[in-house]
Specification:
Layout: H1 2-11, E1 17-28, E2 31-41, E3 51-58, H2 65-71, H3 73-81, E4 86-94, E5 97-116, E6 119-125
Length: about 130
């Protein structure tokens, strides 16, 4: 019995799930018009490549990893935006009215996530 408990306690930190995360926000005239945050399970396991970032978000321990990531999306987005974004800005005029449109895009990133006690540890993997 002690061997089984030791094996489970040793193996749990090694269990992680692979996800693809992307983000896009559209602002018109300096107001948020549309925001899209996508988190999906990866269809194939990511080969464990170089780690580019590691961060943690809180969880109550009863939720799945996917639900915890979606519930703490603002924290996840903030951390991932530090990885680099693509910014498109257009300005147009019509009848002396200036209109601006800004699109912030975070390319799809491979991440690996696992529950460690009361936090979800998210590891951003290199492309």
């Amino acid at each position: 019995m002690k061997r089984i408990i030791f094996l489970v306690a040793f193996a749990l930190p090694l269990l992680s799930e692979d996800f693809i995360v992307s983000y896009r926000a559209v602002m018109k005239d300096h107001r948020l018009y549309n925001e899209n945050f996508q988190v999906t399970r990866s269809m194939i396991a990511h080969p464990k490549s170089a780690v580019t970032a590691v961060f943690e978000t809180p969880t109550d321990g009863t939720q799945s990893v996917l639900k915890s990531i979606r519930q703490n999306s603002h924290t996840v987005i903030e951390e991932l935006l530090r990885r680099g974004i693509m910014l498109t800005d257009t300005v147009s005029t019509h009848n002396e009215t200036v209109t601006t449109k800004t699109v912030v895009t975070l390319k799809a990133l491979k991440v690996s996530a696992a529950v460690k006690g009361d936090v979800v540890r998210i590891t951003v993997l290199e492309d």
